[in-house]
TrEMBL record:
<protein>
    <submittedName>
        <fullName>AbrB family transcriptional regulator</fullName>
    </submittedName>
</protein>
<feature type="transmembrane region" description="Helical">
    <location>
        <begin position="279"/>
        <end position="300"/>
    </location>
</feature>
<feature type="transmembrane region" description="Helical">
    <location>
        <begin position="35"/>
        <end position="52"/>
    </location>
</feature>
<dbReference type="Pfam" id="PF05145">
    <property type="entry name" value="AbrB"/>
</dbReference>
<feature type="transmembrane region" description="Helical">
    <location>
        <begin position="342"/>
        <end position="360"/>
    </location>
</feature>
<dbReference type="InterPro" id="IPR017516">
    <property type="entry name" value="AbrB_dup"/>
</dbReference>
<dbReference type="InterPro" id="IPR007820">
    <property type="entry name" value="AbrB_fam"/>
</dbReference>
<feature type="transmembrane region" description="Helical">
    <location>
        <begin position="247"/>
        <end position="267"/>
    </location>
</feature>
<keyword id="KW-1133">Transmembrane helix</keyword>
<feature type="transmembrane region" description="Helical">
    <location>
        <begin position="93"/>
        <end position="111"/>
    </location>
</feature>
<feature type="transmembrane region" description="Helical">
    <location>
        <begin position="199"/>
        <end position="217"/>
    </location>
</feature>
<feature type="transmembrane region" description="Helical">
    <location>
        <begin position="150"/>
        <end position="169"/>
    </location>
</feature>
<dbReference type="GO" id="GO:0010468">
    <property type="term" value="P:regulation of gene expression"/>
</dbReference>
<dbReference type="GO" id="GO:0016020">
    <property type="term" value="C:membrane"/>
</dbReference>
<keyword id="KW-0472">Membrane</keyword>
<feature type="transmembrane region" description="Helical">
    <location>
        <begin position="12"/>
        <end position="29"/>
    </location>
</feature>
<feature type="transmembrane region" description="Helical">
    <location>
        <begin position="224"/>
        <end position="241"/>
    </location>
</feature>
């Protein structure tokens, strides 16, 4: 029976992957680490597959099911209220997002020239946000090094989550940790989970629509079809019918787990050449990205008359949930922070894949004659 690199019908292999992923998720959640049900399974399955070669397996259909759930949650955020709130600063949001992406492209080009790493791989690794979608896009892109892309994206996310809070609570900004603010944020999060409606017939209808559109999008070769198809379908369906129900926490965690396990199996650290150079370049890329975001935050502060903290949290390239909670804690303008972060998320999920494919065709067309000469 034919198998793929990540798909096998051997039940023991998939069961071993599931148990390892669950262990990673629980331990990362217990340790209080960010996005535990994505990073935990990813790292634990990676380690397990390195220790026990050819023992792990995972189904692409399982991964696609997780992508449908993630796409559904993205579509839920595309409400009329959210879009209306963003419209007031839409020109600024668009300009800042485009400038940020152009800056990332410039950094990727410079680091590519300095390190000799493929430019397209570094470009996908430098896209600010959309960790899951960028990894799936890299999987679909011929010649892209999925290990380097994932490595860069994870390093960027971890640096943003760690360094931005250090900046906010440094003497430069003058903010202090607020126990009451943290308690209110935690209470709001727990209430959101407590009042989640669970699995209802409305949720089943929405998920069925999302799954069907994911399959249709895949049939017509839509980029990252099982993510964008459900996202667009959910947004349209709730606009013409009713607001979509929130996914139960268990389903959200399950979606992250199946995607994280899949990525863990795709990672091949042994295939990395010049590991020290790659790690150093990833750190350099992350530092440059944070410095660039800080410069854009200064521009945003002056042009929109915002506080520096609000501007920095709005421009921080990643960790939307963490930036919003921090904005709540220090009494920054939460609606502004959420608006900028949400706009960038929409832009990356909807506009970047087709734009990247056009750029890839153009870049490949120019590169081919150069390599022949």
């Amino acid at each position: 029976m034919n198998t793929t690199r990540f798909q096998s019908w051997r039940l023991p292999g998939q069961l071993l992957t599931l148990v390892t992923a669950l262990l990673g998720g629980f331990l990362f959640q217990w340790a209080g680490l960010p996005i535990p049900w994505l990073l935990g399974p990813m790292i634990f399955v990676l380690i397990g597959s390195l220790l026990f070669k050819n023992k792990y397996a995972w189904s692409n259909k399982t991964r696609n099911g997780g992508m449908v759930l993630v796409g559904y949650t993205i579509g839920l955020s595309m409400t009329g209220t959210a879009l209306k709130s963003m419209s007031h600063q839409l020109p600024s949001m668009a300009a800042m997002t485009i400038l940020l992406l152009l800056m990332c492209m410039g950094f990727a080009f410079i680091i590519s020239k300095l390190s000799g790493i493929d430019f397209i791989t570094l470009l996908m690794g430098s896209i600010p946000g959309g960790l899951t979608q960028v990894i799936m896009l890299a999987e679909e892109t011929k010649g892209a090094d999925i290990t380097i892309v994932t490595f860069y994206q994870v390093i960027r996310l971890m640096m943003i989550i760690i360094l931005v809070p250090l900046f906010i609570f440094s003497p430069l900004f003058g903010y202090q940790h607020s126990a009451s603010g943290q308690a209110e944020a935690a209470q709001a999060a727990s209430e959101a989970v407590s009042y989640a409606p669970g699995i209802t017939w409305q949720l089943l209808v929405f998920l069925a629509v999302a799954a069907v559109f994911g399959l249709l999008a895949n049939r017509i070769k839509f980029p990252t079809a099982f993510l964008l198809g459900p996202a667009i379908a959910t947004a349209v369906f709730q606009a013409i019918w009713q607001s979509g129900p929130t996914l139960p926490t268990e389903l959200v965690n399950a979606a992250q787990l199946v995607i994280g396990a899949n990525v863990g199996l795709m990672l091949k650290p042994g295939a990395l050449q010049n590991k020290i150079k790659v790690f150093g370049c990833a750190l350099l890329s992350g530092v440059l990205l944070i410095v660039g975001a800080f410069v854009f935050a200064l521009i945003l502060k002056w042009t929109e008359s915002l506080s520096l903290a609000t501007s920095l949290l709005s421009m921080a390239p990643g960790g939307m949930d963490q930036m919003s909670i921090m904005a709540h804690e220090i009494n920054a303008e939460l609606s502004v922070v959420a608006g900028y972060q949400l706009f960038r998320t929409f832009f990356i999920f909807l506009a970047v894949p087709p734009l990247f494919r056009l750029f890839y065709k153009y870049y490949s067309g120019r590169k081919a004659p150069t390599e022949q000469t």
